[in-house]
Amino acid sequence: MEPTVPPPPPPPPALPVGGGPSFARALWRLASARVTPGNRVELYSDGARTFDAMIAIIEHAQQSVRLESYIFKADLVGKRFSGAMLDAARRGVHVRLLVDWLGRRGTPAKFFDDLRRGGVDIRVFNRPGWKPWFGLLPRDHRKLLVADGHVGLTGGIGIGEEWQYGLLRRHRQPWRDTCVRIKGPAARDLEAAFRHTWAIAGGEKTPRRKLRKLVRGALGGDLDPVTAIPSLVGIIEGEPWRLRVARALHLQAAAAQRSIWIASAYFVPSFAEVEALAGAARDGVDVRLLVPSRYDHPWIHGMTRRYYDRLLRNKVRIWEWGGEMMHAKTAVIDGRWTRVGSTDFNPLGVAINYELDAMIEDPVVGAAAEQMFEDDLRRSRQIRRR
């Protein structure tokens, strides 16, 4: 018998034209994210379809391909991407690949050497050495692909077979994850985010004239979601100690009128994040949390379960995914604001590593994200207070 999923609460009242503070302005002020209108957005929840979409982006690139991935393996999936990038380089496309030193462990050096010889420009982020934290922190945990500054994709999926076939010997299932394909002006922001970490990986220092300019002018803060062309998209660049995604969550918890639904693969939140979710739930907001039941790092399960009692006592509802691994990092608020990215709510994700998240304001995308979330809950087990 399939588990029952509670129906979503009724939609919130529509915002009046020109009424209330703009979410775009708030996102700029709290997370330094420029918001752009007129983007075409598509959600992906299946690893095979996501990989097909990424390969298509590479194959149709005419000038540039930028790929940044914490995980890049030399398995069947990695070889497929290697072939696509080499083909692009042969037809004259400028191809750059950025991988994290820790995340690419286990991938033979020859795999990357072959790419270099084929014309792919490669940098490795934060090799160990005599530097702060001996180079072990921070890590580049981003997953990003962008071509020609025109179309891109980001989310939680790395380049590896686990997202297409799974890893277990028995009861093997693909890892559950979410990505978003963005075509439009926000793709330029994805490319700018890539340039930032690419420069860091190459040891390039910010010119003094830029360091002196501490505050940038507001970008996209005057957008009115009622009149702007959807989808509105803001790209949040997670950087060490900036806490940008956490501040965005606090903003959404304060603004939510009916629902906050979050999927987080490695959920070890701060007290501030727990209070934000618990406060919203006690105020009548439907707060749901989806986490894995099986982990690739088993010790995290015990850390996540430490928060269950406090969240459940404060009316937050929790589900554990029934498949092999739920690796998504998403949120949908009021069926209107959707976040898809690489940031988990834990100290590494929120405060230390380099992360990347797309924040989308569009009720059509929000409805699709809610439907995806409800489908996931049907394959999950609800946790109840003892």
Account of the 3D structure:
The protein starts with 22 loop residues before the first helix and ends with a strand. The protein contains twelve helices and 16 strands. It is α+β, with helices and mostly antiparallel strands and 386 residues long. It has one domain: Endonuclease, Chain A (2-Layer Sandwich). It has a nine-stranded mixed β-sheet, sandwiched between helices. A seven-stranded mixed β-sheet has the order 2-8-7-6-3-4-5, with helices on both faces. The chain is 33% helix and 22% strand. Strand 6 (143-147) and strand 7 (151-155) form a beta hairpin. It has helices at 23-31, 47-60, 76-90, 109-117, 186-201, 208-212, 244-255, 271-282, 299-305, 308-313, 347-352, 363-378, and strands at 35-36, 40-44, 64-69, 94-100, 121-125, 143-147, 151-155, 179-183, 232-238, 259-264, 286-291, 317-321, 329-333, 337-341, 355-361, 380-383. Helix 1 (23-31) runs antiparallel to helix 7 (244-255) and helix 2 runs parallel beside helix 3.
Descriptive key words:
alpha+beta; nine-stranded mixed beta sheet; seven-stranded mixed beta sheet
